[in-house]
Amino acid sequence: MGKRWKALRMRRSYQSISSQLREIEGNMKDSIMAKSDWRTIQFFLSVRGVFEVQIDLESEGARCNCPEFKSREGCKHSRYVVKKIRGNNGVYPMKVSSRASQEEIKRANQSTADEFREFVVNYAKIEVL
Ligand SMILES: [Zn+2]
């Protein structure tokens, strides 16, 4: 019984994070993250907010929308993602919720940048560094 309650609580907290992301999504549309070949690959939760790392599939470069990245052209979030990619044969080892079906995962890999971002918002684990 205790176990079941815990699982329910976890699901609730996950959903509240997810809806937060949806709220800030509108704001991000106007930012530097908008239209390009950059793909959102990972969200990070911190006390200062939710930050988003995107990678360029061509150059394998990474960028982030946190204040540290802007001032120093690099941050712990982008470094984390690049390190993971380099340690995994050039592919980011994304942690995806079991709620995502194989079909959805397959479709996400062939989708546009916007659709892929939607998939990450809905299913990818948010990392805390
Ligand atoms: Zn960052």
Structural notes for this entry:
The chain has helices spanning 2-29, 67-72, 76-86, 102-109, 113-123; strands spanning 38-46, 49-56, 62-64. With 129 residues, it is of the alpha+beta class. The protein has one domain (2-123). It has a three-stranded antiparallel sheet with strand order 1-2-3. A hairpin with a 5-residue loop joins strand 2 and strand 3. It starts with a helix and ends in a 6-residue tail after the last helix. Residues 7-20 and 22-35 have low confidence and may be disordered. Residues 51, 64, 66, 68-69, 75, 77-78 line the site of zinc ion.
Any chance you could write out the topology, listing elements then pairs?
Elements: H1 2-29, E1 38-46, E2 49-56, E3 62-64, H2 67-72, H3 76-86, H4 102-109, H5 113-123
Antiparallel strand pairs: 1-2, 2-3
The structure holds zinc ion.
Brief account:
With 129 residues, this protein is of the alpha+beta class.
Number of helices: 5
Major sheet size, sense and barrel closure: 3 strands, antiparallel
Q: Low-confidence runs (pLDDT<50, min 5 residues)? A: 7-20, 22-35
- The helix content is 40-55%
**Overall tally of structural domains:** 1
Q: What is the percentage of strand-forming residues?
A: 15-25%
C-alpha-based Rg, rounded? 15 Å
Bound molecules: zinc ion
Element order: H for helix, E for strand: HEEEHHHH
Counted beta strands: 3
- CA-to-CA gap between the ends? 32 Å
Helix/strand/pairing class, anyone?
A: alpha+beta
